[in-house]
Amino acid sequence: MRGRDLAALDSSLTPSSLVVLDKSDTVRNDMRHFVDRVHIVQSGLAHHSDMRYAPRAAASLLVRWGGTETPVVSVIGPLTRARNKTFSTPRLMIQIFLRAGHARSFLGVPLHETADRIVAIDALWGAAGERLRDRLTSCSLESALSTLYLELQDRLDCSASPSYPPLISLAMDRLGATSSSVEKVAAALGVGDRRLRRLFNDELGMTPKHFVRISRLQRVLMTEHGSRSWAERAIDAGYYDQAHMIGDFRDLMNTTPAAFWARSDRLVTPFP
Hints:
With 272 residues, the chain is an alpha+beta fold. It is 39% helix and 17% strand.
């Protein structure tokens, strides 16, 4: 990439360095309803960089530059469990995190087709994906961000599917913030369990019950370590008890809470 010219980029990285910069302030005002965060990741000259992703009910657009001027453009679908990904270096990456419930309008496919997958943009957008990659070749970092925002806006304008169906919005709010069962929330919204499951699979890439599990896990991840006991944190997050929290942590994060917080490089992606 020519002209890596955002002032925040660090040109003095050590070979093993991995720097994650939050550049969400670059998002255009008309896109803030759809884009959650924007990260720029710069690595040193080590042979690889390990990226650790938390479970997340949303998708993201990832652009990676390596040893050539042509980037690799892909989509990371919703993650039902934590995932480690090793990238060859040197690397410079832009990752645009779409808000939960909005990605289908941009990607053009039901979200369950991308869940727990990294999909090449060409596979989703065909020739349009190839043209985007060409436009991102040999441009400055600031130009690349502008190009990505314009592409997302164009795809939103041309989308045939509504973004963020109101029913999904209400269901996410109720399931994510209360201890109500999926059945009770569906009944309160006047829909059947089957329809709610189909909507969640299409718009979020997972079932309502799995969304609830991830929401509880995220509340634990966002608590300040050491501020309260594990039992208190479990109850506050919506778990029945500490044992249920540990069980979910093992299943979704592939580790225990204590082992997770003992790491200094726990995660490089936002939780929500």
